[in-house]
Request: fold
Amino acid sequence: MNGRNKSPFEYQEQGVNWCPAQVDREILRLRALPYLALESWSITNRQLHVIGTLRHTQQETGRKECLRVRMEYPREYPWDIPSVFDQDKRFAPSANGHQYPDHKLCLSFPLRFEFPVGSENLATEVLQASLVWFDKRCIFERLGVWPGAAEEHGYVRPLRLLLREEAQRSRSLSASAWCEWIIAELVYPDSDKGCPCLSGRPFAHCHTQLLWLAILYQCSSNAMRDYERRAARKAA
Amino acid sequence: MREWSRLQDAGITVSKLTREMDLSNLSPTEARTVHGCHLYCHAVNFAEALDDPLLSRDNFKRLHRYLHVLRVEQRRIIQSVFDGDKVQVQGPKFHGLLYKPYDDDTELAWRAVLAGIALTLTTQMALAKVFPDYTLLIPSVGIALGDCVVANIGARGERELISVGAAANYAAKILGVKYGLTIDSTLWDALAEGRQKLFIAKDAVYYINWSEIGDAEDLLSESGFTWTIEDSVRRMEEVRDGLPLDDINSSEAQVQIDFATLGPKTMKVCEGASLFVDVDGYTNAIDELFGDEERLCDAVQWLHLFRYEMRHLTTDRAAVPVQHQGDRLQALAHLPSDDETKARRRAVELCIDYNSSMEDVLNADYATLGKLHVAIGSSSGKSVAVRSGVRGDLDASCLSKAISQAEHWQINGVGNEICISTKMFDSLDDEVIRGEFKFDRNRGCYAAKDLTWTRVADLRRAKEYESGKSVGFNTATSGIVFGIKTEAEKGTLPLRQTRPWAIDER
Reply:
């Protein structure tokens, strides 16, 4: 296949997301990173997989730390975030150690939108986040406590936190009170009613983000409750 | 790494001490396994001597001469009268080793008991006649029979013997009874039946019953040893007269003490911290290896590496390695001489250096004997640095109350633990390091477990992550500093860390 002469669109038509030029560009970008020693790359199942070693030196002790990682680019890259895995299974997966059972690193709560989705630098930022995760995980391994602030585990609890933060950001006491009521009573917000910030405007046209988060929170907590009920019934 | 390779290339050998050999010409690459009696003679009331106003006058000149005279005589008794060898003088303690006659434990054990009696009487009676005005030193002798490894670790052709083995340790541990001569059960078992009656059993050790001994001089002469108290008095007077007080130059140490320049006529006094770092478990490891020559060589090689590493750590912090005592190092941190607080702080940092090196370097890369840990004790106070003995065989030592305290904490400490005095704790200004030390009521010191620089760095970074400050670390290849910026720095959203991995262009 004369890959060099085809445009990325042609590749996509054929079901291949990564054309050679794109891969070359991405690999060049990764090779330029000072904290990553790139080992190999491959295209598996239309996804780009990259294996390399993250390295850094502790400033105070001069201690060198290395972690072999595998980064899997999603098909929708850069519109979806790549996943990073502990390639050598150096760390035991645990919730407190912020690592999924399949050795994937838990880098960020997706709804925070911390990564610049759509940007060319998305993979670089994910690797930088992995480097920070690695530093924190090393501290966690030695001290037994995850350093610094961390998201709560699961999906519902961080979402609840996000909801509260959004209500705080609105700087409206009534919105904060409304938010607590929504959390306590588990009711679906009504987008047709007025905004809880008491601006007089419809909710859907005022604090949209708050409304969206509240709906998402109710959906996910209901789903979680159903799941727990089913699990309890199964156990019984 | 280089030192380990060098030691491997040098080819350290360990062989059994036989009739054709002795311990006088051991090269640094040779070590001997010796079956013999370890004999410790200690001055129990040494702290009182330090407090004696007469002995402490003129920068402790009299105390130095007092101990010097005693040490020379103790050495002579062990070497010339009982055909043994002096291993080391460790401050107020004298460590001797008797290994002749070979392959006759009964005779060897009796010889060691007689040597113990002679050393006790020398300190108790002869020394009192030579120095009637000074505080009388109260002797205590401990003797144990067993195997040990003797090596010469002296640099530049100097003779500096160390011995490692359970017997050497045990002999030092059973010291402490005033005017007492204590022996271990192995030695008691080796004694002839009639001589066993001279001892009273108590708590798994045996104490001499002086009333059964009668005239000690007669007992010695009956056994073929020519030693009398008068003989010792005469020799000690000769040594005393050969070292007039006016000839002793004693001064405050303003720069780093160089023990090579010290001698019977030169001594230094300084305010500083004394440190003891001891490998916990090394003696047990050695004891299990007797009979396996190859692994014993590895163990001796490891000891040389430990000695090299600890010595370099000490000098890197401008401290002075005083003496290697088996698997233990004694050091003195007295600089800067004009800032005691800084000197104490430096000593604590040195303690952390020792522990870090053991945990993160020696255990990580050179665990030939399995994972070993160090017990560290440190205390500060006025110390006297001296070197005494005979020409060509001078023993460096430091004298102070702080030393006894530091030694006590080290002995009663466990591996991977640092014990420091309250004064030293108070001098600490780093909150992270201070937070790691907890006061131990039973021992009267501040103790920290598992305190290494890696832990300190981890705690500092964890604190920075906690407070949301920028955390920096180098990448291995380029040395570019990455900072971790958090939203908290900007004063919003304390929990949310938006793009905390963003590169800080510092």
Q: What stands out?
A: The beta strands of chain A are 36-44, 47-57, 64-72, 83-86. Residues 160 and 217 of chain A are 7 Å apart (CA to CA). Chain A is about 40% helix and 15% strand. The interface with chain B takes residues 34-35, 37, 55-61, 63-64, 66, 112, 114, 125, 128-129, 131-132, 135-136, 138-139, 142-143, 145, 147-149, 161, 165 of chain A (CB under 8 Å).
